[in-house]
Amino acid sequence: MRYFVAVAEELHFGRAATRLHMSQPPLSRAIKQLETEVGAPLFARSTTGVTLTPVGTVLLDEARALLDHADRVRVRVNAAAGVATITVGILGDGTDPGVARLAAAYRRHHPGVDIRIRDTDLTDPTCGLRSGLVDVALTRAPFDETALTVRALRTDPVGVVLRADDPLARRDGLRLAELRDRRWFQFPQGTDPIWQSYWNGGRPREGPVVRAVQECLQAVLWNGTVGLAPLGHDLPAEFTVVPLTDIAPSRVVAVCNEGDTNPLIRSFIEIATGAYRR
């Protein structure tokens, strides 16, 4: 199910394999086996990538719910067994050099700790922290910080994602007012309103509902939708990111529950602070 969700969110077997830290052939075999068990295709495959079939769309909702439940079970069982485990939620680009430095440094300091990683989509900026799915999160602000401890790690300037053939893609910079007539990404109902407002440039917008980065890119590619993204991330040649001159930078942050006294979590945040400063 984790393999399926990764492919469904990336809509590309190669990117999903990279995200899962595995090669593509065993991932493709696993999805084929799942389709055999389900008795129907989950993806429509083409030379440019994959799209979910109606059956795959239904399974994606169920798979996410199943994986959330499995994470809760593991947390409760590990706590009962006294196993030294922390679960880290990561939102966005797990290939960020800061993540790699943090992982190496944390392993050196705590070689006996079992570290679990939970990749999350764009609908929950706390990566499951409030619901108990993770112990600490590497994510982006702003969002509702009530009852949370937030440590800023880095700031990234933000730009607008456009198709490469969009007339505005040739500009060196843009202001939000120049995009007022465009359609923007929306997150599902119930998403943190502070988070939604930031990625919508501070005002209500109209546009398609998305949950994952690849859904955002497909909306740009097919419908000319615009949305914001941190600068400095590699995108396919079909896209351009033009810097926005009148929006605050996006902060990369480490977050835990306020008052959490777990020394492994506190150490994680301190090590993260050093890893992201390099």
Strand tally is 10
Largest sheet composition: 5 strands, mixed
What is the overall silhouette?
Answer: globular
- Which radius of gyration do the C-alpha atoms yield? 19 Å
Structural class: alpha+beta
| Low-confidence runs | none
Tally of helical runs: 8
Can you put this structure into words, describing what you see?
By secondary structure, this protein is of the alpha+beta class. The protein contains eight helices and ten strands. The strands form three sheets. A five-stranded mixed sheet has the order 4-3-5-10-6, sandwiched between helices. Strands 8-7-9 form a three-stranded antiparallel sheet. Helix 1 packs across helix 2 (13-20) and helix 5 (97-109) packs across helix 8 (263-277). It is globular, with a radius of gyration of 19 Å. The mean pLDDT is 89.
Quick structural summary:
It is built from eight helices and ten strands. The protein has helices at residues 2-10, 13-20, 24-38, 54-81, 97-109, 193-199, 213-223, 263-277, and strands at residues 43-46, 49-52, 85-91, 114-120, 136-141, 148-156, 158-163, 227-230, 239-243, 250-257.
SSE blueprint and pairings:
Layout: H1 2-10, H2 13-20, H3 24-38, E1 43-46, E2 49-52, H4 54-81, E3 85-91, H5 97-109, E4 114-120, E5 136-141, E6 148-156, E7 158-163, H6 193-199, H7 213-223, E8 227-230, E9 239-243, E10 250-257, H8 263-277
Parallel strand pairs: 3-4, 3-5
Antiparallel strand pairs: 1-2, 5-10, 6-10, 7-8, 7-9
Helix pairs in contact: 1-2, 1-4, 5-8
